[in-house]
Amino acid sequence: MTIHLEVAPLITLAAGVAILFFPKLLNYIVAGYLIVLGSLGLLGHGF
After folding, report:
1. Is the pTM of this model over 0.90?
2. Burial degree of 25 (CB within 10 A; 0-12, 13-18, 19+)
3. What is the rounded CA–CA span in Å between residue 12 and residue 17?
4. Per residue in 7-44, pLDDT tens?
5. Distances (CA, A) of 2 to 5, 37, 39, 42
6. 16, 9 in Cβ contact below 8 A?
7. What is the DSSP string of 1-47?
């Protein structure tokens, strides 16, 4: 039996839990997410 996990849902789950316990982290999590997606988009590794 093989378990195949994707990275995006795990990151989303971790961010949700972090926001639940530390609401002030929301700005940093959103900013980091947007920076990573923007960087990957510019490098041609879009989703």
Report:
1. no
2. middle
3. 9
4. 778 888 888 888 888 888 888 888 888 888 888 888 88
5. 10, 29, 32, 34
6. no
7. ------HHHHHHHHHHHHHHH-GGGHHHHHHHHHHHHHHHHHHT---
What's the CA gap between 32 and 11, in Å, rounded?
A: 12
Residue 15: how many CB atoms within 10 A of its CB? 16
Round to whole Å and give the CA distance between 17 and 4: 22
